Amino acid sequence: MASRLESKSIREVWQEIEKVMNEKPEPIEGMNVVYQYEITGDDTGTFQLFLSDGTARVVEGTEGTPDCTLKLSDKNFKKMIVGKLNGTAAFMTGKLKVQGSMGLALKLEGILNEYNLSETA
After folding, report:
1. Among 16, 54, 97, 121, which is most buried by a count of CB atoms within 10 Å?
2. Which pLDDT band, with edges at 50, 70 and 90, does 63 fall under?
3. Coil, strand or helix: which one is 93?
4. Which has the closest alpha carbon to 82: 18, 21, 13, 25?
5. What is residue 121's predicted lDDT score, i.e. its pLDDT?
């Protein structure tokens, strides 16, 4: 069964990610990092996820200097967010490209898994 997030636009998915992270800040407490997603496909865009001491903020465009940049298609982005695509497998098969810290990319995958976004409306 498809997650309700998979039918939403990329912008709506980012709004949801920001909302759930700020409702449950524990997994991102103590972090101070900027992730940049460059999303291609039918629903494209560049988004930055700022994690700073338990607060998440998403902006469209490039406001800050990213510590880690992830490039993938809109479909693969949604699959990764809802847990249907493993980040490491996506990287190994070329579906995900990472620039910057690979460690930060792996950490983000672990954090997103804690939020169980597949259950989100």
Report:
1. 16
2. very high
3. coil
4. 13
5. 46
